[in-house]
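Hey, quick one: can you model this chain's 3D structure?
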Amino acid sequence: MSILGVSVLFMNVILTLSTSLVVHGFSHPTNRRTRSTATASTLNAFSTLDRIKDIITINGNDSKRSDEKYDIANQLMSTCTNFGQVGSKLTEEEQSTIDDIVSKLTPYSDSSPAKIELKGNHNLVYSASPGGSSGAIGPFVGKVTQSFPNETQFINRVEFLNGIVKIELNAERKVLDDNRIKVVFKETAVKVFGIELVRKEVKGQGVWSYVFGGIVSLKNGNGEEEEYLLRVLKTPSTFVIVQKQ
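Sure thing. Here's the predicted structure for all 245 residues.
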């Protein structure tokens, strides 16, 4: 309930108590019926006060949870940024640090993260995968994005040399339940200066599980807060992906 709603309830309590005291307590002679009516009105007023206390408690708890989610999400982002996006190059201790933060964030996920609408481009922040999906090919590390042209297709894209070289993996996804999607890989393509050099069919599939999905406020380089869609998945390797809202 909004602050305005709580204020209205509070005013109703004041009016009820005032009416009870004036009408039934001071202005008229006291009798059994008057006392009974006054008591009922007073009890109703205090019942409303209890409702207000419950609302304030609930809103306070929601605010606390929001603050905790904000703190943990920012801790995850700063840790991934400091360690680097390629988890396979980290120590076991560093990988465990990220997974521990993810575990703390999981309880604050939306209830159905696998069903969140996805569109546009999303940026990889971290991947523990030992394969090229982390953006690492040999000594080179590229920028990794996901794009969603429609509800079922998506493209994992790795770019090198500011986009001069692009490697694209095309796939399809199907929502299995609130927390899981099935991914089927279709084909891969290599482009240089926008010219497609290679395209070939690939085979592979798997089930990806969401451990977190939802909108969070993250600090940018200037310390300002901006809203992002944050997704954390297990493939079973940990992936952290964001999209600015």
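One thing worth noting: Residues 128 and 147 are 20 Å apart (CA to CA).
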